[in-house]
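Hi P.,

Sorry for the delay on this. The queue was packed all week, but I finally got your sequence through. Input first:
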Amino acid sequence: MRLECLVFDCDGVLLDSVPVKTRAFARLAEPFGPEARDRFVMYHSVHGGVSRYRKFAWFFQEVLGREISQKESEEWGRRFAEYALDEVRRCPLIPGALETLERWHGVLPLYVCSGAPQEELSVVLRERGLDRYFAAIYGSPPAKARLLAQVVREAGVIPEAALMVGDAVTDRNAAEEVGTLFYGVGEGLKGGPFPWGADLTGLNDWISTHSEA
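Then the structure:
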């Protein structure tokens, strides 16, 4: 099947921003003690690609033993952005990311499908000059699988002709649910039954073998 559409997660796939956001989650939980902090960081690490607001809700429910209020959720979202956003604006690109975007921009439609909030995601990619590569940029809400299905519909391709590039189990699960191809990035996905790279330096060659472009 010839590839007709490329879809990228952002954190850990385009931007080397996962460590930045991990520190922000740890900082939010720090006042509740080291055990609470470590549980939160572990949950965040295992659930990459999930909206931060769902992670906040988990922390309140599972660690603090109560529901998070709308006001608390908004405040944690504001503080998270305060802790992380400046660094995300400056963090390095994942090796091979820019070369991949340059190679396929204008050849295949490119999309972003991320668990980061839509407005924040769009601002960061615009400020970094990366938005010009993409036909559209999608962030949360909704969940990753719904976003990916929306991308496939918008691109007007069958799922098997689209490639999801992600660094988290959430990305892989979304690809499996929607029926797209999947390319894993980073050590957390190494060893699975799908193509994989430590970064994006090998992605161009893989795409080339699956595209007539």
